[in-house]
Amino acid sequence: MPELPEVELYCRYVARHALQQRITSVRVLDERILGVRKAVLLRALTGRQLTRVRRHGKHLFADAGSTWLHIHFGMSGDLYWYQGDAGQPRFARVIFDFEDGARLAYDDMRLFGVVEVTPDPDAFITEHRLGPDPLDSAFRLPLFRRIVTGRRGAVKSLLLSQDIIAGMGNLYADEALYRASIHPRRAVDTLSAAEVKAIFHSMRAILKEAIAFKSRGGDYPGRYLVQHREEGDRCPLCGGTIQRTVVFGRTTYFCGRHQK
DNA sequence: TTCCATGTTCCGCA
DNA sequence: TTGCGGAACATGGA
Question: Is residue A203 part of a domain?
Fold first, then answer.
């Protein structure tokens, strides 16, 4: 379930459970999930402790001293903190054992994620050409206007491009445009100043709200488009008809009445 | 059995 | 240079 809000929750999860404890062993159950050689990962993390976590877009980084643990969750990545072996998730690919007997498992059914180490998150962000994080304090409306200016193409494509904005995924891109009343295929260079502003605010609001209710264990409210991702469903905002299409190669839902 | 999936990357073409 | 469509990756669930 990993878009920006979910990765933010994983960061908090790691911070709550796994910091300031020695990692006694790292077990790699499936090497295909690794972005570095197994020996490199084990040497970098065994005997170390994680001291802090940070996030950029959908990427999690945990400080392990001379290097950082980096996790990208792909389509189905997940983290589990448990004691003993009974709680080991079905698709555990890497397990970190801590000195008090607790374990942190990276679980990933589809293997699209990555577990690796990297010397420096800022260098990683630069090298991988990640755009700004929409919840970063530096991400303000003037910056978003600069990002939008001079671009063409469908607005949803822009929101999904990690080199332009890091962290928006398929669900939240749809959700933000739904709330901003903008059609996902709308050409970026036809957006008015007011519409750009609306997208900026709806994007940030959606992400913050999702983090808030998910951190309380809640589900998406009924007024969210994600609760109506079915062709022909009724739009809870205006009563219009929910339509399905494909944008940027991704299944896209929108309200045919109020999104222009 | 077939289709679909909250992601990313690479290739070819305009 | 920018943008887009399509395919590939791996696997389970409806």
Answer: yes
Q: Identify whether A250 is a catalytic site residue.
A: yes
A134 in a domain, yes or no?
A: no
The active-site residue out of A6, A8, A58, A103 is A58
**CATH number assigned to the domain comprising residue A97:** 3.20.190.10
Domain boundary among A93, A127, A161: A127
Provide the number of structural domains found in chain A: 2
* Structure confidence by residue, pLDDT tens digits, A163-212: 999 999 999 999 999 999 999 999 999 999 999 999 999 999 999 999 99
Owner of token pair 């709806």: A202
Give A60-112 pLDDT, tens digit per residue.
999 999 999 999 999 999 999 999 998 999 999 999 999 999 999 999 999 99
Written as one letter, the residue type at A32 is R
Whether residue A78 is contained in a domain is answered as yes
Strand A242-247 to A77-83 pairing: unpaired
- Which residues span the domain enclosing A55? 4-127
Measure A206 CA to C3 C1' (Å). Answer: 27
* Whether this model's pTM surpasses 0.85: yes
Report residue A81: phi and psi, to 5°: -110, 125
Name the H helices within A72-139. 121-127
Q: Is A73 exposed, middle or buried (0-12, 13-18, 19+ CB in 10 A)?
A: buried
Task: Establish whether A2 is a catalytic residue.
Answer: yes
